[in-house]
Amino acid sequence: MNGPTSTKSPLHLPARVFVAIDPYGASEHAVAVARRVIATSGAVRLVSVAENPLTHVPAGSLVGDALNAARAELSEKAHEAVVAASGAFAQRNVHVEMQTIDLSQHGGDVAHALLEDARAWHAQLIVLGARQHHGLVRWIEGAVSEPLARLADCPVLLVPETCSDKVGHSLDRLLFAVDGSEQAMQAMRFGVRFATNVTHVRAIYVVDCAVRLSDLVPVDILETAFVEEGTHALAAAKSMLAGTSARVGTALVRTDRTRDDIAHAIVREAERWHADLIVMGTHGRRGIVRWMLGSVAGRVAQITRTPLLLVHPSEA
């Protein structure tokens, strides 16, 4: 890989960035990050979804004028959110498109409405805010971000509602979580688009030292194997990153022996190192295999306060 020629801006930022806009205020940081990562002269599409009021009230509770008024209010709120978000790109040399999707006319759910629009627009990156809680407020949270991240045809950048305001100004510290797989290497190839030769880039491999009752092999033997695999994975990562930045670091990170897992170790390291972005590959598991094995990337998305870039196996 050829080294960068500029210390000011990355070489290959996405030119078509799709931003999911939350009508209820969870997209402020996502919009700031989208403004930061789009290529000069690129295009940004800001899309908000007005939910069908009938999905939130008992059947028959809203009829006639009351139902029409509820639909109009939700649609207007979504439109206002898109217009407000567009102001963030006023000083950027980018083309801005705005769209509001009315689910009472479109049908379906929020996640699939966004996915269909992003696919039709040929998005190169989807950016969305992430609410990491449950309850009555359920817009860009698990019900939307999880299927979007899993089913999207392009990388997805999740920006937690609780992340620092700093992310809108710089992505100077990129943390790559690697596991020795080709998926992780592909994620790195995409993630380095956001780096310059003065960006701090760091690759980590998590050695899972946690003791579990279901373990059939002594944890010390597993740990030795993990360290060996991690050493090789980090060597490959360092070789790739060396062609991108002059500020490259790698580290083996260990989980605690009890009450810990790989996802929490990644999130702790991101916070300790003050990362501006975590980059991870996903393994694209489906069905019962995904249910049994879970998803480290999915668990990181649920708990991180650092923006998370998820790259599927075929996207880099």
From TrEMBL:
Segments forming a coiled coil: none
Q: Where is the UspA domain?
A: 16-160, 172-312
Please, which domain of life does this record's source organism belong to?
Answer: Bacteria
Pfam families on file? Usp
Q: Which InterPro entries match?
A: Rossmann-like_a/b/a_fold, Universal_stress_UspA, UspA
So what family is this one in?
A: Belongs to the universal stress protein A family.
**Protein name in the entry:** Universal stress protein UspA
Taxonomic lineage: Bacteria, Pseudomonadati, Pseudomonadota, Betaproteobacteria, Burkholderiales
